[in-house]
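B., you asked whether I could sanity-check this one before it goes into the benchmark set. Here's the sequence:
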Amino acid sequence: MRLSILDDYQGIALDMADWSAVQGRGVEIAVERYPFADEDDVVRSLADSEIVCAMRERTAFPKRVVDRLPKLKLLITTGMRNASFDMSALKERGVTVCGTGGAPGGGGNEDTAELAWGLILGAARRIAEDHQLMRQGGWQTRIGHRVGGKTIGLLGLGRLGSAVARVGLAFGMKAIAWSQNLTAEKAAAQGVERVEKDELFRRSDILSVHLVLSDRSRGLVGQREIGLMKPSAILVNTSRGPICDTGAVIGALKTGRLAYAGFDVYDQEPLPINHPLRQAPNVILTPHIGYVTDENYRSSYPQIVENVIGFLDGKPVRVI
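And here's what the prediction gave me:
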């Protein structure tokens, strides 16, 4: 039996868990270090794998891929949902799908929220630019902005949005939020004011995106919404790239309709070398590392091992 570990960009998967119990069952482990070129590459690389361990939403498994992998029996994702899996196609094929939970004690749940604040502060204080300037022998050339006293808007107030709000409140910020299902009572319980969508865009000095990607949220931050924002505002997206219209963001940055943007997620991943966002002014970019922490990996990979052993024993765990 063959097990493929996908998208191990950092080359650490085998060090983050004890795989001996899997190997002791005669399972061959193959590690894929680099992104697949296309769907044909996915099928070619995984044709002989009965078990596939995917890092959440790095490699997609639509029906047209699932149908071309007749040996696939177990597909594992980090997290307990994966928008890039065609669950109907997998169920139809009889493929078991399992996931992983958060780290013990809730650790790992806020990794992305922490990065969001890194991007927010990096944008407000122009940290990346000043770091590069210092490397070149320069000194003070620009003025940053404080976040205390400003308004932070949360597009989504779930676990991660709430974590970002708590830090904003600790900085002395006003926190407002909107999502389609958010109630005033739920927002108030977090110390946050629930507002209507247009008001969120108009009032936010910093707008941080924390929605799940769906048909309802795709393209939700478009040219119209960005046009409602203050020219001095900062937009940060650590959720999913397609929620924001990248072209509209780039246009707003170039014309001064938006002061700054911080992105960890993109409409194409990995972000192509020639993607215009790489050359856009006033952006701070990270390569989808919100969940990429030692603590999170040391929680996820051992759970993947447990999922594999459970499946081999005929008692699958964490089934999605």
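One thing to flag: Residues 2-105+294-312 form a domain with the Rossmann fold fold (CATH 3.40.50.720). Otherwise nothing jumped out at me.
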